[in-house]
Amino acid sequence: MKREFPHVLTVFVLAGTLVAGGVIPADAQGIKVGFVNIQRVVVGSKRGKDVLAGLQTERDAKQREVEAMEKEVRQMEADLEKQQSVLSEEAKRERERAIRDRTRDLRRTVEDLNRFFAEREQDVQQQLLREVGAVVSTYGKEKGYVLIFEVRAAGVIYGDESADLTNQMIAVYDAGMGKN
């Protein structure tokens, strides 16, 4: 995993502070430290998959509505093209106006849906991250961990596989430990 140098410095400063502050004895043996890829827990857990799939289903349904609107606009344009030679100038202008109005409505609908789903996805992600955070915290306390780092936030460059708690967190989260 690729990480940035400033995060490594943060980890060393944090560890040094904990040792210097007496939180972790400098000569401590068997200190339990782990790390978790929270995002992988979110997308790899049953709940995360279910919630994200539900959001995708909702998005797909709205996409079908948008496609129907697009089809309607294309049909209006095709009808105008076919009937253009027999329509009066006023009728042509009216149909062109109707096409512009419907196209504008379509554009607004797409913009509104994009904004809605961006906010909805962010809300869902935040909820899942809170739930997973609670699971990690509870697990850490129950299992006697001194520190559990989030892989992306802490900038872990190297971590022994035995310290990677991601798969355990997925299992614990799937078992319902984080449900409210």
Q: Which descriptors would you attach to this protein?
A:
disordered N terminus; Protein Binding, DinI Protein, Chain A; single chain; 6 helices; 2 strands; 72% helix; 180 residues
Structure explained in plain terms:
By secondary structure, this protein is mostly helical. It has one domain (5-174): 2-Layer Sandwich (Protein Binding, DinI Protein, Chain A), CATH 3.30.910. 72% of the residues lie in helices and 4% in strands. The chain is built from 6 helices and 2 strands. Strands 1-2 form a two-stranded parallel sheet. Helix 2 (38-44) packs across helix 3 (46-83), helix 2 (38-44) crosses helix 6 (166-174) and helix 3 (46-83) runs antiparallel to helix 4 (89-143). The longest helix is centred in the middle third of the chain and has 55 residues, at 89-143. The chain is rod-shaped. The two termini are 33 Å apart. The model is unreliable at 1-9 (pLDDT under 50).
Query: Helix amount, in percent?
Result: over 70%
Gyration radius, in Å: 27 Å
User: Uncertain regions: pLDDT < 50 for 5+ in a row?
Assistant: 1-9
- Return the CATH architecture: 2-Layer Sandwich
Layout: helices, strands, pairs:
Layout: H1 5-20, E1 33-36, H2 38-44, H3 46-83, H4 89-143, E2 147-150, H5 151-154, H6 166-174
Parallel strand pairs: 1-2
Helix pairs in contact: 2-3, 2-4, 2-6, 3-4
Short recap of the structure:
The chain has 180 residues and is mainly alpha-helical.
